Every structure is written in structure tokens, then in C-alpha cells.
Amino acid sequence: MVKRKAGLTGSSISTCPVKFHGGRSFLFILTLSTMVLFSAYTETSTSVDIMLLPSLIRVGEKDYSLSVTGTGEASLKAENNRNVRAELALKAIILPNQDQPLPITLPRAFIKVRFPHFRATLGKTRVSWGDGSCFNAGDLLFGSTSIDTELTEQVIRDETAWLASLYVPMGRFSFAEAVFIPPDPLAAITDDKTAYSLPPIEHTQAGGRAVTKLFTIKTEGGYLYRGEEKTHNIYAALQGHLLADWNISASTSIPSQSPEGEDLKDSLLISAGLFHLQRLGIDSQISFRLEALLRPWGTWEEIKNEVVIMDSTAVYPPPEGANYALFLYPEITLGLSRSINLSLRSLVSPVDLSAMFLLGNSWNMYQGFDILTFILLQAGEENDIFSLERPGGLAFSLGFRFKY
Amino acid sequence: MSYFKALAYKIKQILGGIKMKKLFISIFIFFSPAAVLMGITPEEILERMLENQVHDTARIEGKMIIQDRFGKKTVTFVSWSRGEDNALIEFTSKYEAGQKILRNEDELYLYFPDAEEVIRLQGAALRQSVLGSDFSYEDMTGEKDLLDSYKVTLLGSEEVDGHDCYKLQLEAVSRNVPYPREILWVDKELFIYRKVHKFSLSGRLLKEMRITRFTRQNGKVIPVELLMEDKMKKNSSTEFIIQKIEIGIPIPEEKFSLRELTW
After folding, report:
1. What's residue B25's pLDDT?
2. Number of C-alpha atoms within 13 angstroms, CB side, residue A225?
3. What is the CA radius of gyration of chain A?
4. pLDDT < 70 regions, chain B
């Protein structure tokens, strides 16, 4: 299964791309045409969102590559039914390597129904648990705890999954939610398509959460059983305001077989964040965000992998950074005017003193049309998590985004 | 003093949900020498103007046309509100389709459908500009309590487009407002502002807002077309147009809930 995102910094997406060649490309175009024609005759709305980012990427000491990355997404939404909502979206990811087939994903395909006392959702969609823009220990479903993310996207975490959910309101600001995620049938298809077997039912994930407001603090807690890992997972999250908006989430897990107290400790994850927005004059504003992901019993010492020689070239494999005890995500966004935004996003690994910086500018010039500029820089030694020496350690992008 | 407190409490009991602040303003108006001389105080002018803008319940379909030197951007929306504290806005224009804002007292919940994510904001975020317009979340969701943030002075009377108006000056008493000084021309007959000038700290005119159309409903005069022009930039303005408004209609409290926000 291919896991990747187009863009400068990311390489992961949880959707399962179907590789399209000649005939299937025709099928894709046919599907899109049908969507557009269908929307013209029914109570639906279509939208298309295209982002193209020509990028100059550093791939070696004196080597640079010029390529185009980007995404194209077409979405069809049902409208004008008060109690039923549905959406079908197809997304194509344009990658720098022209030899690779165009990956097409299905990020959303769901039906949501509102009954008198509850709401049910079935299909491919997202359910957001916990709080946090980049790091969220409460996100048991999609795991917003990795550094493998796409900072150029407006929404940093938008992974989806095939799921069924039940939402029961319990007051204006309280609700309970049950989620059931069956094993992904596409995950069982091997890359060479020579073997196929339905995934075992034991790989199902199931759980639920409850959200309420205690005084002025949003309080959330939940449980998820991960069938494939055979683990029980729990989390708690709080969100409030004291000088700045703040949030904190914590999660831990324990195996369903032979559990030990140490497991709870070793898998403990804590994320915390602060956000503050300040007006600067009439049309300008600045916002500050700082998030941290902490594994108290993770690795606090730097890991140095040994150099691997490939074709007479020294390669420095990145360390198992996922186990590092601390990561930070600072973000500063400056709204210079009504339509121009500057942002500086960064992923920092304090354990090995390396970081990735993304300086971005978006200019909403016309309705739905943005001019995007990004400069990405990784700073660190060769075998740190972030390093200038890694392919893509330095990149410059200038592109367009248009939604219509 | 205790007599006045007891009297105020008694009157409050009689009048039901009327706020203490309004009550004291009314008492002040009654006993004020200025009120006796001029017949009305600046606070009462503001109160009567706000009565035309704040509704027990309202459902609005409208749009904002944001213009700059590159052209126009149109944002359409539907909103529901109850008093000053509860509002729900759903954006319907293609670029923002499905994005919603829920206002509950001093907190905002933003909903982004693609990420199925709810973000809760409090504090200064309420004064953030909505989608690059000249209006803040507070403006759109009903923060009309100008008397808390500004000291009001009556400067006199002037005509605006042939309409006799009270000229009011608002000076900020809090730093949490976008404009430190504003001058309002309030129609003496209709109690809607005909023109508003918004100034910088140095006294420079930054923006001018005018009501270009109003409608009458349920005994109220409701502004339905506003034009805010940026006086510092050429061809820069935001037009706020209410295409349909229903006031006093039944809107259940559940409309202003997370359930509705995420639907």
C-alpha cells in the first residue's frame, strides 16, 4: 500500500490509492464527467480544488531537481435534504516521479443520516478526537502523533477511514459517540495483485468517546480497541482558555493479552498546545501556536544510525525518531492584509537538536484562487531526524491553488 | 443606597429579563439634567439604535461582497441568532461551503467539514476578521454591547444625505476594540446609523460605513445593506447585504449546539 502525500514535507496519507493506468484513467475521467452531469440535474453541488506546486528541491550536495507536485480533488455533495447528507470525493496526487502511476484516492465517500435522537454516519470520512493542530495524543483513530505530516496543507491532519459512527447529543455542548472501523479491504490487495484475501474480522477497531463542558473547560474521554494490535487504548483531553487558548491530551494503551503495568507507562503519550491571536492594527493580525508531543518514557538520548554505503555513496538512515521523547510544533501566522498571509511552521526535535522550517506565503488574489510560496529548510546533522543532507532538505516552491 | 438597590431589584423583578445595565441607563436617563434639556442622552440613542439590530430570534440569508483592487469576492451565508449571545452561521459560497461558526457567549466554535474538526476559540479570537472582510466574528454573531467598550458623547446634530442625525462620538475604554474612536450619525427618526467614521489612534479616518438600504419588520427598522469603505486604500470595501431576514421566529435552543454545528 502506498502511503504518501503530495507536497514538500509530507509523505503519508492513510487513504488507499488505486493505481491508475490507461483504461482506469479513462474511467476516472468518466466518473468525474458523470459527477458533473449528475450534479447539474440533481440537488447536489460540485467543487474542484486544484493545487500545483512546481518545486526546486535539493537532492544532493550540488544536485537540484525541478519537478511539479500537487493535488486535484473533485467533490460532489448532496444538498437540500435536511436529514441526509452525503459526499463523494476523488483526489489525484501528482508526484515528482513521472514513472510512477498517478495515485487516485477516495478521501471521502459517506452518508450521514439524522434521526430524532441520534445521528449515524457510514462510509469513508474522518472523526476528530482530542485537540491539537499538529500533535494530538487524543486522536486514537488516526494517530496525530507522528512527524510524518504535510505542513504545506491548510489542514495538517485530514486522514480518513472507512467507518461507521453513531453520535448521540446529550445537551448543547455534550455528546457521546461510538465508532466502528472495519479492516480496510483494499489493504489486503498485494502490490502485484496476485493475491487477495479478506482481512480477518479480528482486525476491527471499535470504541467510543464522551464530550462535555465542565464550567468553561471542554472535557473529553474515550476508549478504542485496536484489533490488529490487540490493544486497549484510552485517552482524556481538556481544552480551555487562560490568557491563551490551551489544550492537553493524554493517551495510553495496554495489550489485551498478557497485559503488564509497564505497558501503560511505556505507551503514555501527552500532547499540549497553546494558541493566541492578536490584532495588529485594522486589517492585520498575528497568531501564535505552540504544540508539544511528549513520550515521558520515550528515548531521551540521540540515536546515531550507522552509515550505509550504497553505490559508493554514504547514506545516513534517519534514526527511529518516532520514539524520541519530545517533539515541538511552533507556528506563527501573520495576516498582513485581507488576502495575504505569511506563516512559519516548524517541527522541532529537541532530542537530536534538529528541525524542519517551512516559511509559507499565501495570497488570495481572486475568489478561490491563491498564489502559494513555500521555502523549506531542514537543519541538523546527517543522521538526525531532520537534515539538510537528506533529499528535500532544502526546497523552494511557487504555485497556484484554485477552488471552483 | 440600599433603597435604590432594593428599588432596582423590584423593578427588575417586574420587568423580567431586562438587564441591570439597561435599567440603570434608563434611571440615569430619567434623572439626568442632560436628558431633561435635550430630551435624550447619547446612551439612550445607542440603546435605541441597538434595539433595531439585536433581535430575540432571527434567521438571515445574506452575502458579503469584498472588493479590492483585484476584483470582488462574494461570500454567502445563512445565520440563526437568539439575542446577543447565541448565533450560528453557515457559509454557503463554494470556497467556504459547509464551514460554520457557533457563537455561545464569549466563545466561538469553528467547524471545518473537510477535516470534520471543531476548533474552540475564546478571548481575542472573537475580534478576528471573518474571511478577510471588514467585519469581525463579533460583528457577525451579535456582539452589540458598545456601551461596555466605549464612552459615548453627543456632539450635536448634523444632516446626512438629507436626514437629520444625532452625531455621537465613541471613545474606546478598552484596548480590545479594533478602532479607538468612532463617530456615528444616527437618524433621529429611525434610530439607525446613516454613517459611521472609524478612526486610528492618531485621528486618521480609516473606514467609513454607510447604510444604503433598510427594511421594516415587526415594528423595527432593520439595516439590510451596509457598505464599509477603506479610506486608506482605493477600491477597497466590504458590502454586507441581507437578502432575507425573518425576526421573532421560533428557533429552538438546540440550534445553537455542537450537534447542529457538526451537521
Report:
1. 44
2. 13
3. 22
4. 1-38, 124-127, 132, 138-145, 176
Q: What is the 3-state secondary structure (H, E, C) of A220-277?
A: EEEEEEECCCCEEEEEEEEEEEECEEEEEEEEEEEECCCCCHHHHHHCCEEEEEEEEE
User: So what's the pLDDT on residue B106?
Assistant: 77
Which of the pair, B131 or A256, is modelled with greater confidence? A256
The pLDDT score that the predictor gives to residue A25 is 53
- Alpha carbon distance A106, A110 (integer Å): 11
**What is the mean pLDDT of the segment spanning A176-195?**
75
A243: pLDDT confidence band, cut at 50, 70 and 90?
A: confident
Which pLDDT score is estimated for B133?
A: 73
Selection from B252, B102, B261, B259 nearest residue A167 by Cα: B259
| Residue B89, SS3 per DSSP | strand
The HSE-up count of residue A156 (CA atoms within 13 Å, CB side) is: 21
Q: Where are the domains of chain A?
A: 1-108, 126-276, 298-404
Out of B116, B178, B230, the one facing A127 most closely (by C-beta) is B116
**B234 interface with A at CB cutoff 8 Å:** no
Mark yes or no for CB contact A169/B254 under 8 Å: yes
Sign of the dihedral through C-alpha B62, B80, A109, A372: positive
Block residue for cell numbers 439634567: B33
What's the confidence (pLDDT) of residue B70?
A: 84
**pLDDT band at A190; cut points 50, 70, 90:** low
Angle at which helices B42-51 and B20-31 pack, to 10 degrees? 140
Alpha helices in B118-243 (DSSP H): 137-141, 146-149
Residue numbers of B between 99 and 118 with CB closer than 8 Å to A: 104, 107, 112, 114-118
What backbone torsions phi and psi does residue B2 show, to the nearest 5 degrees?
-65, -30
Q: Inter-axis angle of helices B2-15 and B20-31, to 10 degrees?
A: 120
CA of A133 vs chain B CAs: smallest distance (Å): 9
Mean residue pLDDT across chain A: 84
What DSSP string describes B48-69?
HHHHTT--SEEEEEEEEEEEET
Q: DSSP for A307-334? A: PEEETTEEE-PPP-GGGBSEEEEEEEEE
